[in-house]
Specification:
- The protein is mostly helical and 278 residues long.
- It has 10 helices and no strands.
Length: 278
C-alpha cells in the first residue's frame, strides 16, 4: 500500500469530519444560526472522504493496492475487523446530520456529526488499546476531537466572515463570543493531549523517534495557533470594536496563519497515526 495515499486519506477524513461537527457545534454553543450550505457541504465531503479512507485502510490490511481490492475482500475485512462497525455508525450519523440540516435543526446536526467524528477514536493508536486503559484512551481522544472540532469550525466561520468584509457585525460578535469557549477548548486540548501522548508512547518518551519529533512539531504549531488567538482576542478584536469600518487586513492575515497552522496539525496527526512512537 502507498502510505502517502493512506495519510492523505486520513487527512481528508479528519478535516471534513472536524468541520462537519465543528461548524454546527460552534453555532449551537454560540446560539447562532446559519451556515446551512457550508455544514451540508462538509458533511457530504466527510462521507466521500470516509469512503476513500476505508478503502485505503482495507488495502493496508490486505497488503494490496486499492485498485486490486475486490468487493468480496472488502466485505470480508469489514466483517472481521472493527472497521465495519466504525463505518456503519459513521455513515448513519452523517446521514442523520444531513437530515437534521435539511430540517434546519442545527443542534441535532451537531449531535449526529459529533457521533460521526467520535468514531475516529476507534481507529489508529486509540482503537488498538484494550481493556480499561484502552477505553480511557478512546474517551480522552473523543474529548480531544470534539474540542478541536469546535476551534476548527469557529476558525472557518471567522475566516468566512472576514473575507466577506460587509459582514463585520457578525464577525465581531463571533470573535467576542469565542473568548470563553476558546479558553475551555485550550484547557481540554492540553489535558487530553497529554493523556493521549502518555497512552500511546508511555513514559519515558523515546525522544529520538520520528513520532516524537512530529509530536513536537504539532505542539509548536498549537502554541502558534494559541498565540494568534490571543493576539486576535486582545488586540485585533478590540480594535475592530472601536472602529467597525476599519481595515481588516491584519485580522485576515492572522486568521489565515491560524488556519494554515490548523491544517498542518491535521497533516501531522494523520501521519502520526501510521507511525510507531518508538
Amino acid at each position: 500500500m502507498d502510505d502517502a495515499c493512506f495519510v492523505v486519506a486520513r487527512l481528508a477524513t479528519y478535516a471534513t469530519l472536524l468541520l462537519a461537527a465543528g461548524v454546527p457545534l460552534y453555532l449551537t454553543a454560540a446560539r447562532e444560526r446559519g451556515a446551512w450550505r457550508l455544514s451540508g457541504g462538509v458533511t457530504l465531503a466527510a462521507m466521500a472522504a470516509s469512503a476513500w479512507w476505508v478503502l485505503e485502510a482495507i488495502a493496508s490490511m490486505a497488503g494490496q493496492p486499492v485498485g486490486q481490492i475486490d468487493p468480496e475482500m472488502a466485505f470480508a475485512v469489514l466483517d472481521a475487523t472493527p472497521l465495519g462497525m466504525v463505518m456503519l455508525v459513521r455513515l448513519v450519523a452523517l446521514l442523520a446530520a444531513l437530515a437534521a440540516l435539511w430540517r434546519c435543526n442545527m443542534g441535532l446536526a451537531a449531535l449526529a456529526a459529533s457521533v460521526a467524528l467520535a468514531t475516529m477514536a476507534w481507529t489508529g493508536h486509540a482503537g488498538a488499546g484494550e481493556g480499561g486503559t484502552g477505553a480511557l484512551h478512546r474517551a480522552s481522544d473523543v474529548v480531544h476531537l470534539l474540542a478541536a472540532s469546535i476551534w476548527t469550525g469557529a476558525l472557518t466561520l471567522f475566516s468566512s466572515a472576514a473575507i466577506s468584509s460587509q459582514d463585520r457585525e457578525t464577525l465581531l460578535r463571533r470573535l467576542s463570543a469565542f473568548a470563553t469557549i476558546g479558553s475551555a477548548i485550550v484547557v481540554l486540548l492540553l489535558l487530553t493531549g497529554i493523556a493521549n501522548t502518555l497512552a500511546i508512547a508511555g513514559w519515558p518518551i523515546d525522544l529520538a523517534s520520528t513520532w516524537t519529533w512530529l509530536l513536537g512539531a504539532k505542539l509548536a504549531l498549537f502554541l502558534g495557533m494559541l498565540a494568534l488567538a490571543v493576539f486576535n482576542r486582545w488586540l485585533l478584536t478590540p480594535r475592530l470594536a472601536r472602529d467597525p469600518t476599519g481595515n481588516l487586513g491584519y485580522l485576515k492575515l492572522s486568521l489565515a496563519l491560524e488556519t494554515g497552522a490548523a491544517f498542518l496539525i491535521l497533516a501531522i496527526v494523520s501521519w502520526l497515526g501510521v507511525l510507531s512512537p518508538s
